[in-house]
Amino acid sequence: MMRENLTAPADDRVAGLEPVPGLWSMLREDIACVFKRDPAARNTLEVITIYPGVHALVLHRFAHALWQIRLRYGARLLSFIARMLTQIDIHPGATIGRRFFIDHGCGVVIGETAEIGADVTLYHGVTLGGTSWNTGKRHPTLGDGVVVGAGAKILGPVTIGRNARIAANSVVIEDVAAEMTVVGIPGRMVLPKHQRRITADGIDLDHHRMPDPVGKAISCLLDRINDLELKLAGLAGEEAASGICRSCEAEDCAQPSFDGSLKPDPLSLS
Hints:
Elements: H1 23-32, H2 34-37, H3 44-50, H4 52-68, H5 72-86, E1 89-90, E2 95-96, E3 101-102, E4 109-110, E5 115-116, E6 121-122, E7 127-129, E8 141-142, E9 147-148, E10 153-155, E11 159-160, E12 165-166, E13 171-172, E14 181-183, E15 188-191, H6 213-236
Helix pairs in contact: 1-4, 4-5
């Protein structure tokens, strides 16, 4: 059986740390993991016949095996056929670990030097792209258990630590620490694991509940302005309006909240 030779630093548990089984064993795991991550999957026949993410991965496993024995044209031809059938573009040189799942799949692009660990989940529109025309390592490395939301772009030879989450439509251009959540353009680390909801299977798919660091910053600024107004009013012996902003120290503080006192007078606009 063809085996992939994957090595990685032990501290970050990036791509391929656990022993890699034979090709057919990996394909069986790829199909079985769908049922743990997609509640719409009903039976094995359905997964094998109508899941484009599974089709793309199966064809990639064979293309990558050809790539390793230097049958480069055959490998590229197989990946080209896979792209036509699935709309998922995976370069045969990319290294992909065990139990990899692409949900929906349409528009996913994975570059030649990308390395993906075990139990990684990608949603549609994800790009693992390069930022250089030079040869060598130019695509991302994803650690075990990483979840990448729809439309996210991870660019360049950056490392995404184990169990990190990349929010939908984020653009990541720097390394991400393990267990962190990244959101925004450019991506910012905003939420550690102990503040996230982890399922019994150990996979966090709750990627629709992302914090808003910009909204939180604005809320904190409004609170600060309110405090300064109260102090100035006290020095002037005047009564200042209160209750305009809520405290930004609360964990759920994500955006400014108003009590209506700042609404303009309709008569003043006439």
